[in-house]
Each structure stands twice: as structure tokens, then as C-alpha cells.
Amino acid sequence: MYKVIIAEKPSVAKNIADALKIKTRLDGFFQGNDYIVTWAFGHLLQLYDAKDYDPKMAKWKMENFPFIPATFRYKVKTDMRDKDKADRGAEKQLKIIYSLLKRPDVEMVISACDFDREGQIIGDTIIYNLKTQKKVYRLLLNEWTPDEVLKGLQNIRPNDEMRPLQDAGVSRQWADWVIGINLTSVATLKYQKGRGHALNIGRVILPTLKIIYDRDKEIEQFVPEAFYKLTATFKTKDNKEYEGTYFEGEEEKFKDKNKLEAIEQALHDTTAAAIIEKQVEQKRDYPPYLFNLSNLQGHLTSKYKGWTSDKVLKVAQSLYEKKFITYPRTASSVLEESLVGRAAKVLEVLKKGLPFEDEIKFVKLKRVFDNTKVESHSAIIPTYLTPKSLTKDEEIVYSAIKNRFIMQFMPVAEYEETRITTKIESPAVEGAFSSKGKVQLVEGWKKVEQIESKDTVLPLVGLHEAVKKVGQLMSSHTTKPPKYHTEKTLLRVMETCGKGRDEEESEEMMAAILSGFSIGTPATRAETIKKLRDVGYIAMHNKNIQCTELGRKLVETFPIKQLFDLDFTGRLEKTLSDIEKQRFSKEEFLNLIFTFTSDAVTTIRSEQDVTINEVAVERKEMEVLGKCPLCGHGIIEGQKGFGCSNWKNGCKFVIWKNDKFLSTMKKKPTKTMVKTLLKNGVVTVKGLTSKKGNKFDASLRYEKNSDNEYFSWKMEFMKS
Fold first, then answer.
1. Which of 44, 79, 224, 304 has the fewest CB atoms within 10 Å distance of its CB?
2. What average pLDDT values come out for the chain (720 residues) when binned by 10 residues?
3. Got the DSSP string for 499-512?
């Protein structure tokens, strides 16, 4: 008898099949050694659209809202090219999975989708929509290495035990559908003139927009204030110089210019000074914690130009599916204590050949292993499998994770911090001059990424030692406004709803993350920032994020202020986390969401009519790029693709701008490319990118499939 394993993606199914030493691959599954391993492509099923429940919902009319289905239903996910049709690939794969589950020689089903809310409902919607009578189990893994797959299959759990996780996933999915469908539709009808993209309203997108809006406003309303500082240069008896900043009490930034000018004048009358206080402290500098997803995204987006949090997640996901790192969508910065043995094994593999190999010692540290600080998944670390070849992007992400892991087991960096106070021998100068500097004693973990100290080093002086003042300078300054948000700072606020955001490494920060009181989850935050940009609510200026005019108008006009409130959104996310822990019920949460949505629709309806967004209709002469290979009419450029002008009469020819085949090689079709293709039947495309990141040129044809009405790309490699 066979056991059917359903993985979330084909690459993961291949990892499982390899671990089980299954060689036979059939159409849509692997089979052998008592197992059948098949796969989804993420969500194969999606929730019904409103019009699927009721045809009158096909057109947006204010009187049709609020719309909340009595029961939520699922259908095969729709085709990206044609929203009225099911995706053929998803439809085919579902039929394959269902035929496998119905086989008489299959005794059980094992869901091997990602161990999180989304992974749970991806597997559950597929399995339970079939209403199978066979036993359903869950494979819960944090990495896809062969050892872990085999160990995991020995410890599968009945899927019934995952009901709280399923409830949380379904609650999130249904809540976002209800809020999104109702409030997006009603807001667009109320506040937008002209046809165009809808005004996107959502539970996570709006509070994130408000964080950016608030910072923009702080900067706009900031009134700079002038202040003055006085510094002096001193020389020791062995002619070493150092600088000190003048202070009185706690103050070293003076608003009273005249007072400081008088002190500076008094300094001209004397050069004699002495050290009146000296403090030397030896301090320990611990490495930063292991990465969770938000910290990894923040680290890389601030370090590398052009990197976005969305890109970091995609690259990390690729490394995870290739078995090189553990599960990336985690909120934890420490490891479970059960991973001590595994971590030691990984460290042994990674440290070989490093110039400081002898300094790397495995120790079970509380800063690294602590069950009380792990929420669902441990921090991101490498696995024991070392990559042979990576793309440049994968190398950047993998190195960051590997280095952060190695740092934990290097000696703690140590430095000496010296503070000296120098007093001028003049009764006219009440205050004194403060100087501080550091000396690195033990480099320790800083060797891993050759982190150099930029701190001032002070000369060696003794208490009461006489020194000589050799110069002074009074300087004027103005207070600086807050900085615009970057992806790093925005992710930090989203992660904790603003709690503990000032100190990334603090216990308060970790406690805030573990509370579940956040905007979105590690998996969705990057997508939220990208969506805000795509819908035109925010714009990026280098690394800075700012609201657009549309984003500002939305915040200032949209009347449902709760959706902008960090506390409200944080409580919703916390409630979803509590559903997982069986502290709150799915039914209570959904009733709360349905009531909130109905009330919000009523409020929007009763508000004064205001235009937030006016979509100008541009009528432009369409350039004909060539003849349609199906019907001979002109091919023209549309918003989403290059299609036949005869589409109203049913011609289906189109080359999509986000074409999946071309996007795998990091290319998009251009007008010039389409013109050449239509004229010659073939087009030479330069600078395509292989899976390994190498550039190559090829000739492409776009030919009709023999068994359906769609077209597919055919590639011919150019002879060198």
C-alpha cells in the first residue's frame, strides 16, 4: 500500500523523492518505495469571486454591499491571462492529485506543505475539498535535507491536531476577502472618478501606509532649532593630541550663543588644563542575534543598492527549496533547544578551511538556544548541505545567513572604553570638556565580516595630569528632522507595531515580536510594501519611502480610521495568533470581522462625496505592431500585453508582458521584439539569464500549441 505525500511545490516534492530514493517520475508525481510524492503550485484552489455566488455582483453597485457569503466556497485558481477561466495547469494537477487519492492501493495522505498558516490551508483545501475518507497526516519540517525528511516521516502527526493552525489560516483568508472585496469596491465607487485601477483597501496595507504618512508629516512639520557646541584641542606632555566637547551639568548643546561665546573668549586667556576625571571600562560586545526574516530583509536592503524586502524573501525561499537554509518565514531570532545537535553538525561543516577556524567553538549558548523565545519556527540558519554553485543574489543572502550563524560561536569582541574630563584652569570657565574613545582588545566575531571599529582612540593620560589647550572652535548646528522610512525601518515598525523599535537587539524588541502583536506576518510584509508601491500609494526615492499624493489623500479622506490604527491591526494579528494557540475561536473572530465590515460600508455610504482619485481617460491612436498570426488583424499594445485588436470577436492571440517563460530568464517582451517576431516569425533575444545566473543569447519562436488555442515559446540556441 502507498502513502501519498502532497508537497507545496515541485522542487520540494523532488527533495522528498530524492530523500526516499525514488527514481520513477510520472506525469505529475513520483512513485516508489511505498510512497507517491505529488505537488501543488502554491494555492491550486482560491475562494470564489463575489460574482460566482451571485451574478448581480459582476457589476459594482453601492446597493449590493456589504456582501458576505453565508458559506465560503473554493474553485480552481483562475488563469492569470483570462480571469473567467480556470488555470489549466492547476486544473490538470488537481485531477492528478485527486486520482491518486482515490486509488485503492493508497492508504493515507500526508500533507507536506510549509509549516505555517498558508501552508496548512494550501494542503487542507486540496485534501478536504475531495472529501476523502482516507487518514490524513502532517509532515512538519523546518528544512528539506534528506536526514530531516526521513526523520520527519517517522514522526508524522494526525492532521486533526493541526486544526487550530487551519482555523487561523482560514480566518485570515476569509477576513481579508471580506474586508478587501467590500471596502475596495465601496471606496472605489465613492471616492474615484473614471475607470481604472480600484482604490485598494486592506487590513494590512492601510496601517502600513499610515506609518509612512506619519513619518512624512513629521518631516514636513519639523521646525529646525539652532544650537551651538564648543570643542577644544588638548596636547599631552608627550605631544599627543585629543579633542574634548564643552559641557555644563548634562548640557553640551547650547541654545544661548552669547553664553558660549563668552566662554570661548575666556579660553583665549589660558592654555593650562588638567585631567580631573578618568574612567576606563572593559566591555564585551556580543554578535547580533541570528536572523529572522524581517532582520535579514532589513540588513540586506540597507546594505545593497536595488535590493527590496520582496527580493530578499524570493532569494531566501529559493535557498530553502534547494535545501541550503532552514525555513525563512520566521519571526524568531533564536533556535529551539532541540536543535543543539543539528547546529553543532552544521557548524562543523561550515568552519572548515576558514582562516579563524581554531577560534570557532560550538557551545550551547542561551543567546542562541532558548525555547521561550521561539515562536513556531526557529531563526534562519544554514543546513549541513553546502552549495556547490549559487547565483550572485543567492550568494549574498546565503553568506549573510552563514556569517551570522558562525559569529555566534566566535569569541565575544572586547574593547576598552575610556572617558576623560579635562578642566581649564580659569574661574571664568565653569564647565569642563568631555572626551571618549575605544580601544579594541579582542576582535572576536568581528573577524567574520572584517567589521572595523571607527571609534576614536584616546592618548594614554593619568588622573590629575597637566595638559595644554592648543585650540578651540565654536560651531553652529541645527536640529535634524527624522529620517524618511526605509524598508529596514518600516519592517521593524510592522514587526512590532512600533513597540521596541528603537533597539533592534533588545529583549523588549524580541518580546514584542513573540507577542504576535504585529502588522502582517514575516511572510506577508514584503508583499505589502510591494503592493503599496504597485497600487501607487507610495514611491521609492533611492532607499527612502514616501507617500504619493494618492496615498496622502487616501489617509486624509478615507473615513474608516480603525484600518489605519496600528493597535487595531495589531490586535487582529494577535487574535489570529491566539486562534493558533486555541485561546480564541475562529467563529468569534469572523463575526467580529463581518460586523466591522458591515459597519464600515454603512459609514462610507453616509459620508460626503469626495474625489480622492480621478482617472483620466486617454484616447490614443493605437500603433499596429504587425499582423495577428491567427486572424490577420492588427496586433496592438495593451496594459498587460500585446494582443489582437480583434479580441472582441473572440481572437485569443496575446503575448503577456509578465510572460512566465520569459520572466524565468529575467526578460520582458518589448515592442521592438514583438514587431520583429510578427514580421519574421522568429526574434533574436540577447542577454537572457540562465538558472545559474549566466547570460546567453537565443532565437525565440511563438507557436500555437497543437492541442489547445494557446501559444508557447520555442527556443533555439545561437551557434557561436
1. 224
2. 96 96 96 96 94 94 96 93 85 96 96 93 94 94 95 96 96 97 96 86 96 97 97 95 95 94 92 96 95 96 94 96 96 95 97 95 96 90 95 97 98 95 94 94 93 84 95 96 96 82 61 76 92 95 95 96 94 93 95 97 92 73 85 87 85 86 87 90 87 84 81 76
3. TT-S-TT-HHHHHH
